[in-house]
Amino acid sequence: MAKYYDVKITLVSQLKNCPAGHKVGDEFIVSNKTPAGMCMGAFCSLMPYIQVLKFGGAFFWVKEEGVGTMCCPDPNVVNTFRLQRLPASEPVHDSYDD
């Protein structure tokens, strides 16, 4: 069975107030569902990077294993998010394995 990891998203900086109401320090956990309360524009732009970390991959340009820093697509706000793969204690069984 494949290993799936949860990914923690943390808003680490922003240039202006976010129209979605996000504030520095906000955290979201991505398991097997879209995190409640997260702006869809930001989530959709982060999703390819979340998937890399979720399935054990890494980014060659990042020195620290299992992390990445990405921005939302709103050029007026520029929310910067830190993505971090969380350690897996057990392989996750979900509907993909049925």
Describe this structure in words.
With 98 residues, the protein is of the alpha+beta class. It has one domain (7-88). Helix content is 15%, strand content 22%. The protein has one helix and four strands; from the N terminus they run E-E-H-E-E. It has one helix at 40-54; strands at residues 7-13, 27-30, 67-71, 80-85. It has a four-stranded antiparallel beta sheet, covered by helices on one side. A hairpin with an 8-residue loop joins strand 3 (67-71) and strand 4. The longest helix is centred in the middle third of the chain and has 15 residues, at 40-54. The chain starts with 6 loop residues before the first strand and ends in a 13-residue tail after the last strand. The model has no long low-confidence stretch (mean pLDDT 87).
